[in-house]
Amino acid sequence: MMKTLYLKKGKEDSLKRFHPWIFSGAVHHIDCEPEEGDIVRVADSDGNFIACGHWQIGSIAVRVLTFEEREIDVSFWSERLQVALDVRRSIGVAGRENNTMFRLVHGEGDNLPGLIIDIYGETAVMQAHSVGMHVCRMQIAEALKQVFGDSLKAIYYKSETTLPFKASLGQENGFIYGKSDTNVAVENGLKFHIDWLKGQKTGFFVDQRDNRSLLEHYAYGRNVLNMFCYTGGFSVYAMRGEAKLVHSVDSSAKAVELVNANVALNFPDDNRHEAFAEDAFKYLEQMTTPYDLIILDPPAFAKHKDALKNALRGYTKLNAKAFEKIQPGGVLFTFSCSQAVDKDQFRRAVFTAAAISRRKVRILHQLHQPADHPINIYHPEGEYLKGLVLYVE
Fold first, then answer.
1. Distance between CA atoms of residues 40 and 57, nearest Å
2. Is 282 exposed, middle or buried (0-12, 13-18, 19+ CB in 10 A)?
3. Residues 244-269: pLDDT tens digits?
4. In this predicted structure, what is the pLDDT of residue 302?
5. From 3.30.750.80, 3.40.50.150, 3.30.70.1350, 3.30.470.30, which CATH number describes the 74-187 domain?
6. pTM here?
7. Which alpha helices (DSSP H) does the chain contain, by range?
8. How far apart are CA 63 and CA 52, in angstroms?
9. Is the separation of the CB atoms in 288 and 260 below 8 Å?
10. For residues 286, 289, 294 and 298, what is the CA-based torsion angle, rounded to 10 degrees?
11. Tens-digit pLDDT profile for residues 118-132
12. What is the rounded CA–CA span in Å between residue 31 and residue 53?
């Protein structure tokens, strides 16, 4: 039987505004202590039902799954996944032959906090960020099979590094349904190897799709430098955009192998591209090639608020070096994927970098995450990807 959690008096206001988190400080008591990952019923101080969600240990005590009093079973997951797929079809990223990869579930943005699902062709990669979603993984897998039918051949569960380490679940990555050796998916007509076994996130940075398309339109005839290239998404788009040359840089030799493989997959024997396994700051400092299009897409400099000050210094230093080095008339694509850094803080860091370099800089575009990474209007914290496209005189 579902246990009931009672809130302190007046602590239900945020839930009445449909915010999907309940913090531990708002909890008065629970009928009896649940296991982490259990589904609990949430009531106000008078015992009136408010929501159901996953109980967890930590500052966020409950991640809300529904504001309706109902059973959380396979039919619940199936309904939510069907709605998520319908959204992706309506925005034009699902159901297209020239685009077989997209994000199906984006946590709170799809009213499924703690769950990420990316689709790569016939394979779904599922990632749990809460113990509750880990506990429900097989039900969710069954719902995925119901929604996709025969078009889904495999489900890979990749939560080894995303689950709370204190939960001591001993989770290992692996297939929980079927198996697939085909690791190539298509994005806007371009092919990419997806490394869901050992790659970052679910194997590819799906969230930069729209920004890669924009970059393609700026690449014509330019010398392009793609810093922190990872699998080389921006590099491949720049190649199709008829860049004069494209250089990809990443500190990881494995990433350099991946970018070379992805370029070869789309542009075999094309000598416009070269990749370097090198530290970003060192490469920028020592580079001799005159680049007039630079992409800065670093990993998150701040994964939590305590690292914010150092992160902002890092963004300032990195962008200042790019401003110093980029050719007159150059275009800079610069990003932050740190959720702890809001768009105003990031913009101020880039502004400071421009002032240090004493270059004249214009904002051409302000960028964000794509529509298959939606932001729940009641959960603005879901906005994490920020970017600027800048013209540098």
1. 13
2. exposed
3. 999 999 999 999 999 999 999 999 99
4. 56
5. 3.30.750.80
6. 0.94
7. 13-16, 74-90, 131-135, 137-148, 209-218, 233-240, 253-266, 280-286, 308-325, 343-357
8. 8
9. no
10. -30
11. 999 999 999 999 999
12. 15
Q: Which residues are catalytic?
A: 337
User: Nearest Cα to 62, choosing from 111, 129, 5, 140?
Assistant: 5
pLDDT 10s digits, 293-346: 999 999 877 566 677 888 899 899 999 999 999 999 999 999 999 888 889 999
Q: Is the pLDDT of residue 49 over 60?
A: yes
Distance between CA atoms of residues 34 and 130, nearest Å: 15
Predicted local distance difference test score (pLDDT) of residue 167 = 65
Is 57 in contact with 40 (CB distance < 8 Å)? Answer: no
**Residue with token string 């939590």:** 304
The confidence score (pLDDT) of residue 166 equals 67
* Count of all residues that appear for the chain in the document: 393
Q: Where are the domains of the chain?
A: 3-66, 74-187, 205-392
C-alpha 393/C-alpha 357 separation (Å) is 12
Nearest to 378 by CA among 115, 109, 133: 109
Structure tokens at 34: 């649940």
**pLDDT value, residue 204:** 92
Classify residue 304 by burial, with Cβ atoms within 10 Å: 0-12, 13-18, 19+: exposed
- Name 316's bridge partners: none
Q: Do domains 74-187 and 205-392 have the same CATH topology?
A: no
Q: Which of 358, 317, 311 is nearest to 337 (CA)?
A: 311
* Residue 2 banded pLDDT, cuts 50, 70, 90: confident
**pLDDT exceeds cutoff 80 at 179:** yes
Count CB atoms within 10 A of the CB of residue 56: 22
Residue 230 has pLDDT above 80, yes or no: yes
CATH number of 205-392: 3.40.50.150
352 three-state secondary structure: helix
- In the CATH scheme, what is the code of domain 3-66? 2.30.130.10
Which two three-digit tokens encode residue 194?
């997806």
User: Which pair of tokens denotes residue 66?
Assistant: 């529904």
